[in-house]
Write a structure and sequence with these properties.
This is DNA repair protein RecO. Involved in DNA repair and RecF pathway recombination. The protein has eight helices and seven strands. By secondary structure, the protein is of the alpha+beta class. Helix 3 runs antiparallel to helix 4 and helix 3 runs parallel beside helix 5. The chain binds zinc ion.
Length: 251
């Protein structure tokens, strides 16, 4: 019996999404996962690069699976993978979806690197956004910007697009400051702050709250302007470049 319980203590199951993978040795990969139960996990998938691998394509980026892992001394080892949502296939088939998913996964990795507390919420948010992307529910760049605003809000950096982010005076306001947290009133606006269109501020508010009827009907010019402001907000708060954001094609 003691052997049985010690085995159980070293094996665990999680629901997880693959954030990224890299090669290890001849046939293995290290898989960076975001799990709902344990936050970020880096684990080894042995033999996954062989065509005969029992994992098939189940550990490709953006796949959501029910995984069984065995605790290791340094890295855990994935022993079983059952696909829950095969988002990776549909996303990999479209370049715009793929670059957006890569930017979302990189952001999720950074936001959950040190913060295990919000990992469950970040997992649900990312899986929801990947699902919308895989099904083509909205324009890929809108899904990205909505995801980024909500992921930062979940991490404790909620932007404001109506009331002034600094003093709370009711909006609408015509200036934006990434450093102060969104819309800013005439008195609070730092010199040189951008003055986005009223429709751009409405679009940003819609993306943050998930008001898709407003977001889906927005004009390309306002989407472009909103994307630039979201990018500046994300960069400011992550303080490191989210490299893959630059790869996202903005038309
Ligand atoms: Zn103010």
């Amino acid at each position: 019996m003691s052997g049985r319980s010690s085995f159980a203590a070293h094996t665990y199951r999680v629901d997880a999404v693959v954030l990224r993978t890299h090669k290890l040795g001849e046939a293995d990969r290290i898989i960076t996962l975001l799990s709902s139960e344990r936050g970020q996990i880096r684990a080894v998938a042995k033999g996954v690069r062989r065509t005969s691998s029992k994992f098939g394509g189940r550990l490709e980026p953006f796949m959501v699976s029910d995984l069984q892992l065995v605790s290791g001394r340094t890295l855990d080892i994935i022993s079983q993978a059952v696909t829950k949502s095969p988002y990776g296939q549909s996303i990999a088939a479209h370049y715009d979806r793929y670059t957006v998913a890569t930017a979302m996964a990189e952001t999720a990795e950074k936001l959950t690197d040190a913060d295990a507390e919000s990992a469950g919420a970040q997992y649900r948010l990312l899986v929801g956004a990947l699902g919308a992307l895989a099904r083509g529910e909205h324009a890929a760049e809108l899904i990205l910007d909505s995801y980024l605003l909500r992921a930062l809000a979940t991490a404790g950096w909620a932007a404001s697009f109506d009331a002034c982010a600094r003093c709370g005076t009711e909006g609408p306001h015509s200036a934006f400051s990434a450093a102060l947290g969104g819309a800013v009133c005439h008195d609070c606006r730092p010199p040189g702050s951008p003055s986005p269109a009223v429709q751009t501020m409405s679009l940003l508010a819609a993306l943050l709250s998930g008001n898709w009827s407003v977001a889906d009907n927005s004009e390309p010019a306002h989407r472009r302007e909103a994307a630039g402001l979201v990018a500046s907000f994300v960069q400011w708060h992550l303080e490191r470049n989210v490299r893959s954001l630059r790869l996202v094609e903005r038309n």
